[in-house]
Amino acid sequence: MNQAALFLKKNEDKRLRKGHLWIFSNEVDTRRSPLEHFSAGDLVQVVCDDGKILGTAYINPQALICARLLSRKTTNCGGKFFKERLTAALTLREKLFSKPFYRLVFGESDGLPGLVIDRFGSVLSVQITTAGIDHRKEALVTALVELLNPTAIVLKNDTSQRQLEGLSQVSEIIYGQLPESLIIEENGAQFNIDILNGQKTGWFYDHRISRAQVRSLAGNQRVLDLFSYSGAWGIPAALGGAAEVTCIDASESALSLAAENASLNQVSGKMQFIRSDVFDFLKQARQDNQLFDLIILDPPALIKRKKDYKPGYEAYRRLNHLALQILSKDGILVSASCSYHLERDSLHEILRSSGRHIDRHLVFFATGGQGPDHPIDPAIPETDYLKTFFCSVSTSL
């Protein structure tokens, strides 16, 4: 196979040799390999300044991350390639889980940069964020059908990340037919999910372990689930014996799905669902002197890009500060962030300073991160994005 060479500038191969897969546009020797000579999705041979070949990548000359390594060898990224990578990913998940409800592919960590696949029993939700994978989706789908024989495959390609690659944003059923109702299981609870109209791939498996811990802490507690979406935190809390659970979200459709899931798990009598902006709810709750024993604060990514850091940091600070103000004496705050650009130490500091500001004694009694179906590649820090602090909060010492 003939693949054009993508030459790197001198010393720009160090991160790749350590195991990272990304090549930024400013690391390319554009004199030897002008970017305008490539088309989005092309396969290239990545070549060091000294002429040594590092492997095969796909390229998008218009993107900041202009190339991503697929293999340290030469590959055509066809059906065999996808089947081998998918088989390796499946083998790990089948060791970890007894039922087919998990993230099957987590991008770079599974050697498939630009690809996320969630498995909901016999239905697969596929999210493609790069032109390199998008141009080869037929081979990908064929490999998935041969390996897993799904009843349906949904391309959940409505993410804004695709805009950066010049790709369209659309969700569609590319194979088979979706069942009228799709129910998954997690931590002893059942959830009806909506892939086509839901957020991301339709579900968030990453907090699985932390949600199980919340269930164990919820007995007889008055629970507040902020940014509740479809009830992934609140319903396990109710099943764990919570006295009552209040779910807050700005989306009517998300709350409707959460109410359906409460009924499915026979905990509707313990739960209430309030449509509100979370900041507005917290301010009003403080004015009304409402108190909660266990507060779950799991907002969407508030810092999606580096340039969003300052306003995003302030939003995280305000949310945690407000939540602590309506936490009862000896209450528990579970505070999380899925923003990669908000480092664990930064969330740590937000919680420390917020506790001191309102004169409360705050300690961490547990921490959490992403579940094992979101494996972390030690050479790619971007794969380690989720952080959660379990905080016990009492009156000042």
Structure description:
The chain has helices at residues 14-17, 79-96, 131-134, 137-148, 208-217, 234-239, 252-264, 278-287, 309-325, 344-357; strands spanning 4-7, 22-24, 43-47, 53-59, 65-71, 101-106, 115-120, 123-128, 152-157, 170-176, 183-186, 189-192, 222-226, 244-249, 271-275, 292-297, 327-337, 360-368, 387-395. It has ten helices and 19 strands. The protein is 27% helix and 29% strand. The longest helix has 18 residues, at 79-96. It is of the alpha/beta class and 397 residues long. The N and C termini lie far apart (70 Å). The protein folds into three domains: 4-71, PUA domain (Archaeosine Trna-guanine Transglycosylase, Chain: A, domain 4, Roll); 79-176, Transcription Regulator spoIIAA; 201-395, 3-Layer(aba) Sandwich (Rossmann fold), CATH 3.40.50.150. Helix 2 (79-96) packs across helix 4 (137-148), helix 8 packs parallel to helix 9 and helix 9 packs across helix 10.
Topology of helices and strands:
Elements: E1 4-7, H1 14-17, E2 22-24, E3 43-47, E4 53-59, E5 65-71, H2 79-96, E6 101-106, E7 115-120, E8 123-128, H3 131-134, H4 137-148, E9 152-157, E10 170-176, E11 183-186, E12 189-192, H5 208-217, E13 222-226, H6 234-239, E14 244-249, H7 252-264, E15 271-275, H8 278-287, E16 292-297, H9 309-325, E17 327-337, H10 344-357, E18 360-368, E19 387-395
Parallel strand pairs: 1-3, 8-9, 13-14, 13-16, 14-15, 16-17
Antiparallel strand pairs: 2-5, 3-4, 4-5, 6-7, 7-8, 9-10, 11-12, 17-19, 18-19
Helix pairs in contact: 2-4, 8-9, 9-10
